[in-house]
Design brief:
- The chain crosses the membrane at residues 31-54, 60-81, 93-114, 126-145.
- This protein is an all-alpha fold.
- It is 91% helix and 0% strand.
- The protein has two domains: 2-153; 154-193.
- Helix 2 runs antiparallel to helix 3 (60-85), helix 2 (28-56) packs across helix 5 and helix 3 (60-85) packs antiparallel against helix 4.
- The termini are far apart.
Amino acid sequence: MVAEKHKKKTNNNTNENSRLTDFIQRNLRQICVVIAICDFCHAIFFVVNATIFLVTRFNIYSSLAVVGTVFWVLIVVLLIVGLWKRRPILVKIWLIFSIIGFIVDIGFSIWIIVSAITVDWVHLKEFFIIFVGIFIESICIYLVYKYYLGMDPYQQKTTKKKRDEKACKGTIKVYYSNLLRYKNICMQYINDL
């Protein structure tokens, strides 16, 4: 009796996990687009903040912040275009940039914890929010990476190769017809001699 209840409970959990996995698999592209749009809004928010900081306090750090956030926006635009046009190289660029940012975030978080003079509830709440953000960031990177693995990196080369083969077949037909015409002209010339 207890074994049957445990078996039903395990079967139910497996069923729910498979439904979630199936949902993610079916809607992975849409999920990645939502991630890209959220990342774009996040980047625009930081561009605005960095620009305000640049206007209020002009120095080298504020200038670097504006340049960095504009670069971030461009990388996110590459992700959006890569998802829209199914260009794996553009998605790969975003993945590399995001993984570097992820590592920097973890290092920065460790530095904040180590350099904290006191640990109180306010700091613990800030640390918790930072780690939740890092966790969400890692999930987003994983989902985009999973979509990237499903993209066909040879798609563009394949379509170009097919297009070249069609053009080549047409060229061969023209070449062959010209060759036959020249052969007939040569045969006629030889017969005339």
